[in-house]
Design goal:
14% strand; 8-stranded mixed sheet; 325 residues; Rossmann fold
Length: 325
């Protein structure tokens, strides 16, 4: 009897030790995903990892160097101004303000995870060509902004609202304001609109995910690993580190508060934010909406892969859909 009790205690101790170890690994992985390092080589996307890289990621987590501030492009040097936007007393954002002489409205452009404002320069040039001023923003942790972390769009919603205040103060009543975001930037925009969408006239979402838990699980699936329970622990500890619930950070839920005209652009071959996630977000939107999908395009810039299709959809949205409102 005593041997059986002793064996049971040993088993329980091993299970407890395993549970503690699993949570410790998940905590470290979440920390590595949400905190940028000063330098180093960025870990490849999950779908492109070699077997050795997968083993290293499982053991150590990913490495994401802090995105650097890009240089203002020479072709826009005559009109572009570099700005600093205060989010609060501690956090500030680097931004490029590019006014259009036609002043048909303003687009606030928000980049994705581990990127910076220079990623959206080609899109900015297209908005300018259509007569819209553009504010390109480095969200917190990137480029010319303060901090060295990300919350995958949760606290970045405050960055979007700070950028919106900047535009309202700068432009007064010179036309509609549209928010454009890619991937994590789209998630930040949706949360921002759910907080305060009163001064926003339209939204363009590209490559948005539906639920944080889904997109984290996809990373494991793309590495050929079981998603659960490690992805759930990752979401839990990631939110814990920044005092929010990762399970409640869901663009599909924010979508119910989005009542302005919304254009969604999505690659049908997107391996990270799947088409099913995009459709769920689209169906939850409360206002006028249109979803355009693109064949053979993954989680990348649609403009760079299908310029004609992107220009057609965005041009119609800005010059026709918003005019009718």
């Amino acid at each position: 009897m005593s041997q059986r009790v002793s064996g049971l205690r040993t088993l329980l101790a091993l299970l407890l030790l395993g549970l503690v170890a699993l949570n410790a690994v998940a905590y470290q992985h979440a920390h590595a995903m949400l905190h940028f390092v000063p330098s180093g080589e960025k870990t490849n996307p999950p779908e492109r990892l070699s077997l050795l890289e997968k083993l290293r990621v499982v053991a150590m987590g990913i490495t994401v160097p802090r995105p650097l501030a890009g240089q203002p492009p020479s072709d826009l040097a005559g009109i572009l101004t570099e700005e600093q936007i205060a989010v609060d007393d501690r956090i500030h954002l680097g931004a490029w303000w590019i006014p259009s002489p036609k002043r048909r409205g303003t687009v606030i452009a928000v980049h994705g995870y581990s990127g910076g404002k220079s990623q959206l320069l080609e899109e900015a040039r297209e908005f300018l060509r259509l007569g819209w001023s553009v504010l390109l923003v480095d969200r917190r942790g990137s480029g010319g902004s303060s901090e060295a972390y990300t919350t995958i769009g949760y606290r970045e919603a405050d960055d979007v609202l700070a950028a919106l205040r900047f535009v309202v103060d700068r432009e007064r009543t010179s036309g509609p304001i549209v928010l454009y975001g890619r991937s994590m930037g789209a998630a930040a925009i949706m949360r921002a609109v759910s907080i305060d969408g009163s001064r926003i006239n339209g939204v363009i979402l590209e490559g948005v995910f539906g639920r944080l838990s889904e997109t984290v699980a996809r990373r494991f699936e793309l590495m050929g690993l079981p998603a659960h329970p490690l992805s759930d622990l990752l979401v839990f500890w990631g939110g814990f580190q920044f005092d929010f619930s990762g399970f409640a950070h869901n663009p599909v839920d924010y979508a119910r508060s989005v009542r302005v005209p919304t254009l969604m652009l999505h690659g049908r071959a997107d391996p990270r934010a799947t088409l099913a996630q995009a459709v769920a977000v689209y169906e939850a939107l409360s206002g006028p909406k249109h979803l355009e999908t693109f064949e053979r395009i993954g989680h990348q810039s649609i403009l760079k892969q299908n310029a004609r299709g992107w220009r057609k959809q965005v041009g119609a949205f800005l010059t026709t859909t918003l005019v009718r409102q």
